[in-house]
Specification:
50% of the residues lie in helices and 14% in strands. Bound molecules: zinc ion.
Length: 258
């Protein structure tokens, strides 16, 4: 009996050691497999990201430089722009939100961005194009929202004498936004809204900027559907505007196509 007991004791001791080694081996195998899987999936992710960037319509190539002036309309207590019908929504806030989102997307595409304002402050109308002229910006895009008793949709304004380069920029931006989805495409407009259409008057930012420019009226702040679309598509609109700007820079030979 004693011999048997001793024999049994030694047997279990070995089994326990063997089990411990077995468990350790399993742990190492599981950790190893996990590591390999995560390495592969990260590879997959980064490949996807690169593909996503490559399929974008425009990327600024190495050695190419593009400086875009993005002008968020209005700003500060002195000039909140147009108001929604219930007077809770200020155009100046919408313009700034869109401008900051466009800035982000332009930077992601490799462009340099000059902002006429990047916070809720008053900026004199004439100093806006001056900033762009002083910095030798290549393109100028002013972001606004429309207002009226009735009316909806997006329109883009250029100088009344319809300069080709400005019209190209305006059309590209408008077509891009139309693809994302807008309530109505109101087309490229010439001159200045609200005056006699035959009067030769321009928006100050278009008139005074030395580079191709346009003024985007991104829907009516007085229209519920346009406001819903603006909020829902803010980032998609901004991405589209940024891509249209870079596309225009290529078509205007400011930068070489990537
Ligand atoms: Zn405005």
């Amino acid at each position: 009996m004693e011999k048997q007991n001793k024999h049994t004791f030694i047997y279990w001791d070995r089994v326990i050691i063997a089990l411990c080694i077995f468990v350790l081996i399993i742990i190492f195998i599981v950790l190893g497999i996990k590591g390999i899987i995560s390495a592969f999936s990260e590879d997959g992710k980064s490949e996807k990201a690169v593909q996503a960037i490559k399929t974008d319509t425009a990327i600024i190539g190495a050695g190419q430089e593009l400086l875009v002036c993005i002008d968020a309309g209005h700003g500060g207590e002195e000039d909140c722009g147009a108001l929604s019908k219930d007077e809770t929504r200020f155009e100046s806030n919408d313009d700034l939100k869109m401008a900051l989102a466009v800035e982000k997307h332009l930077q992601e595409l490799g462009a340099d961005v000059l902002m006429t304002r990047n916070e809720d402050i008053y900026v004199d109308l004439y100093s806006r194009p001056e900033m762009a002229n002083d910095a030798n910006a290549d393109l100028y895009v002013s972001l606004h929202r429309n207002s009226a008793e009735t009316g909806q949709g997006v329109e883009v304004w250029v100088n009344y004498d319809s300069p080709d380069d400005d019209t190209l920029l305006a059309k590209n931006i408008l077509n891009g936004l139309d693809e994302v989805g807008i309530s109505q495409n109101r087309g490229v407009q010439y001159g200045y809204q609200g005056y006699d259409p035959t009067a030769k008057v321009n928006y100050v930012v278009n008139e005074k900027s030395n580079m191709p420019s346009c003024l985007v009226e991104l829907g009516f702040i007085t229209d519920d559907e346009d406001n819903t679309l603006f909020d829902k598509n803010l980032d998609a609109y901004a991405k589209s505007i940024a891509e249209s700007i870079v596309k225009s820079a290529e078509e205007l030979n400011i930068i070489e196509p990537a």
